[in-house]
Amino acid sequence: MPVTDATRIDRVPVRQRLAWREALVVASVAESASARTLVLGIDGWDEHCAGQHLDVRLTAPDGYRATRSYSLSSGPGEVPQITVERVVDGEVSPFLVDEIEVGESFEVRGPIGGYFVWEPSDAPLVLIGGGSGLAPLRSIWRAAADHPPPVVIGASARSVDRLIYGDELQSLGATVQLTREAASGYRAGRIDRAVLDDLLACAESEVDTTDAVVFVCGPTNFVEHVATLLRAAGVRPDAMRLERFG
Amino acid sequence: MATRGFQGRARTSDGRVPPGQHVTDDFPVLTAGPTEFVETSEWELTVTDGIVTSTFDWDRLHELPMESITTDIHCVTHWSKFETRWRGVPIEALFDAADVGDFDYALVSSYGGYTTNLPVTDLIDRDAMVAVEFDGAPLEAEHGGPARLLVPHLYLWKSAKWLSGIRLGDDEDQGFWEAAGYHNYGDPWSEQRYASD
What we know:
Radius of gyration of chain B: 17 Å
Oligomer: heterodimer
Radius of gyration of chain A: 18 Å
Number of helices of chain A: 5
């Protein structure tokens, strides 16, 4: 197998110095039974690229610190937002989902990341997210709202009460799969080859090309599963952007 | 600046966790692209210094001396995993067998196109190896099998999965994440995550 040239992949370098700065919680939105979006006030915030993340740092009274990365779920021109899913027995996510209140603050640095990033182009766009993996994809579909390429969205969640951005997904005509529950208006089961074939056909039917760019984000098993199916469906590895959550 | 109301987990005070990291018992998968599936019958590793080029197939790799190590590993995405067990060929033995010259820098490449750069001293003076086993079993594809680079003292993006090539030279060319703004060296204890750290 020949070694391909990784420099083909477009990347956005991290240019500015990544200093920690204060992020004030200015609003919060419950997105599901286990996730909420924090709307952040950050002095001197610049536009981010759709798909980038923030590093979040929490500091205890004795100086102990915990750091995690969270995808930005807001569009590039919007006030920065992160959507956090509560991880059972987690250290940082329960604090961000259940405890921190509007008017309180923590530290962040970023935006960060140059790989899982959508750069405006005319290529058809397919976004496939599992669980809170929809967070960076929301940033991308909002960024792509004014662009001509069709944006096709596939979402997967365990159940209706665990689905984030349900109304927005519906208005965008997303295909939503529920893996652990049957409910009207949703498809049952995992995303499989037939679902992917439909999504790809949908993206490519409106333009005279087959070079859709596919972004996949979610838990590791979900991303591995979808990426394997995409390869079998003929999507080139360099046309995929994958982001796995632990 | 303390974060009001945040207490955090029980403290680990034995100095084993680098700054900004937390310990996990899982083995998360972090890869830029899709998992590569390379059969051992197809797998080859090419080592070159621009003058001498040696290719190792699976059998030739297994003729080299192997070592087992137990080590902590640290991913730039903030998780660390303790006492992971690996078996493989130390890079020094690989370079001896390849008969390559003495150069300062290495650019490592993977099946699928991934690259990363390291100083050669970090490959031969510490515990770096071409790893073929994890936890007593053949290394799984999603963790870089059949063979990956393992450089346990640096952030794990330096430990290229699906290892296919090591190119030595006088100059340091940047790899995939390094060119994308991640730190050129990646020492977890100095928290060298991004280029400006």
